[in-house]
Design a protein that fits this description.
heterodimer, A: alpha/beta, Globin-like, Transcription Regulator spoIIAA, 5-stranded mixed β-sheet, 11 helices, 5 strands, B: alpha+beta, Heat Shock Protein 90, globular
Chain lengths: 289, 133
């Protein structure tokens, strides 16, 4: 019985492939193939059905299937294409076997279904696993990448450190900001820390709360915090919300904040150009004598 | 009137989704950047309240159009525990979660209209409106 069914399928593989292609081509109108050329679609279909047959023939999953799914993942084909394909295959093959058999009773029918499921299901599982595995991999990579970007600390010069924040701040990120800020202040021996929120789209009470807490913690370890990059619209919403940011200095731009930070550490920016001009003037006046 | 569009709030990141959709709608209606920031902040507060206190709920948007004025309505709904003392939560500095306690009174100041209905054990519905000037 086992081999009989398998032989029926393998002997008539051409007919089954033809049926499958016909049936599956009607799916072509669905949007997942909208940006795939007709030729490409047909070639892939042929390859797909060959892969299915080879895995039925070998009584198990072949490395062909791995290669095939890996290539489709890399090309960005949707998983829906493969699962649809397998569902159509299941329908076609059950149809075909039942038509080939003279006598169909319930036992035989359930036997056929069981056998076909045994062929089709492992392939579907394998494909879904490959796809979801690749997604999970991408998501975990991106999470790591995001985490690395989420709370950077730049020691711009002695005693002054900047933390530029870009994007939404959620609770997890707020925690990370606090940790990195305190670690960085100790590590770089910073006297002044500038927190730049130019890139934070919305400052609501939660974000403000976290910033206030971070600034307070920085104060506790003996450094000062300046909040910079407050855009006019953010300033208005902060006032409307009634948030008190009076405990630490705030500035509209990083540049102004940096100047304040220099002042706080007893330094200032001087133009070397003017000095040169002064010296030249002095030399000129000397020459004149 | 435009159809209501809603965002379900289940995870913390849904707050961002609600905020972005609200900001888009506000921009389409014609709000300037300052009002867009106000609206986005109000949505953020309301959505965060759902996430923090009710767990799940939804935030809906409605573009309002009357003869002489246009605006946006934001409706935050949940089936959470409800609010026992509405008067208390509308006071500045009241918080049960250790936050700033500026959320709801702040939203009221950010927007033009503010309606709150809450029943203990049944849930809360807050409707706020911002008119375009």
């Amino acid at each position: 019985m086992d081999n009989k069914l398998k032989n029926i399928v393998l002997d008539h593989s051409d007919a089954i492939v033809k049926m499958w292609l016909e049936e599956f081509n009607t799916h072509k109108k669905q949007d997942y193939t909208s940006n795939i050329s007709a030729e490409m679609f047909e070639n892939t279909n042929r390859e797909f059905v060959n892969v299915i047959f080879s895995s039925i023939e070998n009584q198990g999953l072949s490395s062909d299937l791995d290669d095939f799914s890996e290539r489709l993942i890399n090309l960005g084909w949707p998983l829906g294409y493969l699962t649809d394909g397998m569902q159509v295959f299941r329908r076609v093959i059950v149809d075909f076997i039942l038509k080939q058999s003279e006598q169909v009773d319930t036992d035989y029918f359930s036997e056929v279904l069981k056998k076909v499921d045994g062929w089709v299901d492992p392939i579907i599982n394998q494909l879904v696993n490959e796809y979801s595995g690749s997604w999970e991999h991408i998501v975990s990579l991106q999470r790591v990448a995001l985490q690395e970007l989420s709370a950077p600390l730049i020691p711009v010069m002695e005693n002054i450190t900047i933390m530029p924040l870009i994007g939404t701040i959620d609770t997890e990120r707020a925690k990370l900001i606090m940790e990195n800020l305190l670690d960085g202040v100790i590590k770089h021996n910073a006297e002044v820390v500038l927190i730049d929120i130019t890139g934070v789209p919305v400052v609501d009470t939660m974000v403000a709360h976290h910033i206030i807490q971070a600034a307070e913690a920085v104060r506790l370890i003996g450094s000062r915090c300046i909040l910079v990059g407050i855009r006019p619209e953010i300033a208005q919403t902060i006032v409307n919300l009634g948030i008190d940011l009076g405990k630490f200095p705030t500035k509209s731009s990083l540049r102004k904040g940096f100047e304040t930070a220099l002042e706080l550490t007893n330094r200032k920016i001087e133009d070397t150009q003017n000095r040169d001009a002064d010296i030249e003037k002095l030399i000129d006046s000397l020459d004149g004598e | 009137m435009e159809f209501q569009s809603c965002v379900n709030i289940k995870k913390e990141w849904d707050i961002v989704g609600a905020r972005q959709l609200g900001r888009d709608i506000a921009r389409k209606i014609g709000f300037g950047t300052v009002d867009q920031a106000r609206i986005a902040t109000a949505i953020s507060e309301l959505a965060r309240n759902i996430y923090l206190y009710a767990g799940t709920g939804k935030v809906c948007f409605e573009a309002l159009e009357e003869i002489d004025r246009k605006g946006i309505a934001i409706i935050a709904m949940d089936d959470g525990p409800g609010i026992k003392e509405i008067g208390q939560v509308m006071e500045d500095g009241f918080s049960t979660s250790g936050g700033l306690g500026a959320g709801l009174p702040g939203v009221k100041r950010l927007m033009d209209e503010f309606d709150i209905h809450s029943e203990e054990g049944k849930g809360t519905e807050i409707r706020v409106v911002k008119w375009l000037r």
